[in-house]
Write a structure and sequence with these properties.
Number of strands: 12
CATH superfamily of the largest domain: Reverse transcriptase/Diguanylate cyclase domain
Radius of gyration: 32 Å
Structural class: alpha/beta
Largest sheet: 5 strands, parallel
Strand content: 15-25%
Oligomer: single chain
Number of helices: 11
Strand order of the largest sheet: 2-1-3-4-5
CATH class of the largest domain: Alpha Beta
Order of helices and strands: EHEHEHEHEHHEHHEEHEEEHEH
């Protein structure tokens, strides 16, 4: 029964009717709330956000229609049913204008009709909740991507890279398990100068896709600058595995990129590798040492990789 998954707020000033409906409906819904007038109901509405509201019209302090109008100012989709002894033309017209989802007459003589109305209302409320949940999830993903993704390549950005590296290095103090790659595309400025920034952007997107298919699933790949990428590898890594990955990334970078107008372009990259905590005691040192190793690779003739070595500071000083 769908109602078992939903909450219901019953608004009625007559205590006997409230008790009757509580005994009848409470076992068949996920949560049952009740209020003696519209003002009490609004307080419960703001606090509990019930899926369905079933309300009388004539009540002290605040009637049902006034309460409905207040709710409609905040939420036009809230599922609301009216249960009232008033069934004159004017009342029905006012109810239609208040955009209610159903109208039931008191006293209730046909309980099958009551449940049928509640089931239909439940279907609408359940669909509404699902849509809101999916929409909310999509909005959260959109917000996350806007804050943490590079808009050109859709890789992670510098902010997310820094945040994850700091987090992993804190864990790495116990597990000794964070490796950092710095990848710098060789002579990429010439691509922009020769073919224009549109072709340069296309090349960056292509390289980003290639890298994404080659790195481990648990790694963090980011674009941290114009033609600079970083790769964070959590967990224990052997030098042989790191060497193999570096060579694979070099080869993937060097593969020609076909141009839409015909022809192709190609370039290489230089990779620097540092490990935490073997090569560094802080995140700042880890980044600096990967950068130094990358420059040593570049000085070796480009299209090279290099592990950080003690003394790289002097060589690059």
């Amino acid at each position: 029964m769908l109602l078992k998954k939903l909450s219901l707020l019953f608004v009625e000033d007559d205590s006997v009717t409230r008790e009757q409906l509580r005994h009848l409906l409470a076992p068949d819904v996920r949560q049952f709330f009740e209020a003696g007038n519209g003002r009490e109901a609004l307080e419960i509405y703001h606090k509990e956000k019930p899926d369905i509201i079933l309300t009388d019209l004539s009540m002290p302090e605040m009637g049902g229609l006034e309460m409905i109008r207040e709710i409609r100012k905040l939420d036009m989709d809230q599922v609301i049913l009216i249960l009232s002894a008033r069934n004159d033309r004017e009342t029905l017209f006012e109810s239609v204008n208040a955009s209610v989802d159903g109208f039931l007459i008191k006293p209730i003589l046909d309980f099958d009709r009551l449940y049928a109305q509640l089931e239909r209302a439940g279907e609408k409320a359940f669909s509404r909740r699902h849509v809101h949940t999916v929409t909310g999830q999509k909005q959260m993903v959109q917000l996350f991507n806007k804050a943490n993704r590079d808009p050109l390549t859709r890789l992670y950005n510098r902010y997310y890279f820094q945040e994850k590296l700091e987090s992993l290095c804190k864990k790495g103090r116990a597990s000794k398990s964070t490796v950092l790659f710095f990848l710098d595309l060789d002579d990429f400025k010439e691509i922009n100068d020769t073919y224009g920034h549109r072709m340069g952007d296309m090349a960056l997107r292509t390289i980003a896709k290639r890298y994404s298919t080659l790195v481990p699933d648990d790694s963090i790949l980011a674009r941290i600058g114009g033609d600079e990428f970083s790769l964070i590898l959590p967990g224990k890594q052997t030098r042989e595995r790191l060497t193999k990955l570096a060579k694979t990334l070099l080869e993937a970078t060097h593969q020609p990129i076909e141009l839409p107008e015909g022809g192709s372009l190609s370039f290489g990259c230089s990779i620097g590798i540092s490990r935490f905590p073997e090569d560094a005691e802080t995140v700042e040192e880890l980044i600096h040492h990967a950068d130094l190793a990358m420059y040593r690779a570049k000085k070796s003739g480009k299209y090279h990789y290099a592990f950080y070595q003690t003394g790289d500071e002097e060589k690059n000083g």
